[in-house]
Amino acid sequence: MIVYEDNFNIKLDEKTYIALGSFDGLHIGHMNLINKTIELARANKAKSMVFTFKNHPLTIINEEMVPKLIMNNKAKTELLKDAGIDILNYVEFNEEFMRISPEKFIENIIGYYNAKGLIVGFNYRFGYKNLGDIELLEDLSNSLGFELSVISPVKVNDEIVSSSRIRHLISEGDITKANRFLNRPFFLEGKVVSGKQLGKKIGFPTINLDYNKSLVLPRGGVYYTVVEYSGKKYKGITNIGYNPTVKDKKLSIETHIIDFNKDIYNEFVKIYFYKRIRDEKKFESLETLSKQLEKDKNYAEKQNLEFKID
C-alpha cells in the first residue's frame, strides 16, 4: 500500500476508485464501504484508494468540539493495508481546504487522482460548511462522468452503526457492544511507563500504559483484556481509574498480565479490551483489594484468548 499526505498536489496516472470519509474506528459499516471500493477497483482494473483526513476537521473549525477518537492514524493505516487498499491519502484539513466548495472538491478528486468511481456512506457530507450531499454527488457523477456508489447503513439489532455511537459505548464502558459494532476488540497502544509499584507489593505486578490522550477511554473500571507484546498475546486484567484505595489523583491504565514476569518498561504494547468485569471501587485495605484481584484473575483465566463476538 502506498501512503500519501497530499492536498491536491500529486497527479495519478493510473485510474482509481476512491472511498471518501473520516473512517474513525473502521467499524463494520466502514469496512463494507472499503471492501466495495476494493471490489470495484479490481473489477475495473484500477487502484483502490482511501481519501481521508490526517486531522479531525474540528481541529480547525472549532477545537473545543473535537471528539475523542476511536483510533489513531497508525492503527487506521495498518487496518487499511490488511484490508487490501492500494493507496491511502491523508489530507491535512486546514483553512485553505476548509474553504473549498463542494463542487471544486469533487472536481479535484476526479482531476488529480484520475478517479473513475467514488464510494461514500449514505450520510456523506463534503465541501465548504458540509454543503455537499448525496444529491449533489449524483448530479456531479452525471456531469463529470464518474461512477457513484452509496453504501447503505449497517444495523446491529436495528441500531445504525456509527463512529459517534461507538465512542459513546466505549466511554460508557459497554465494550461488548462497541466491539460488536467494530467487529474487533477496541484497543489502546503505547509505551509501558513506571508507576507506583503498588500491584507488585500485593502480588499483582502491573504495567502502566502511556496512552494517546486524543483517544476515547473506556469508563473507569476493571476489564478483561488481552495484551499483545512482541508478537505474542497474553490474558490480563486492566484497571482504568484513580486507584481510590490509595487515593491516587492521576488517571492511570494499569494491567496485570497473567503468567508474565518480564520487565517491559519503555516497551510497546497493545491492550485489547474484551469485556467489562466490574466498577472500580475503594477497598477497606490492601488485603481486601488483593482478594478481589484474585477473583478478577480467576475470571480472566477462564476467558478466551482469541476474540469472539458475543
TrEMBL record:
One GO term (biological process): riboflavin biosynthetic process
EC number from the UniProt entry: 2.7.1.26, 2.7.7.2
Keyword Kinase annotated: yes
Pfam families registered for this protein in UniProt: FAD_syn, Flavokinase
Gene3D superfamilies for the chain: HUPs, Riboflavin kinase-like
Its job: Catalyzes the phosphorylation of riboflavin to FMN followed by the adenylation of FMN to FAD.
Protein known as: Riboflavin biosynthesis protein
High-level lineage: Bacteria, Bacillati, Bacillota, Clostridia, Eubacteriales
Gene: ribF
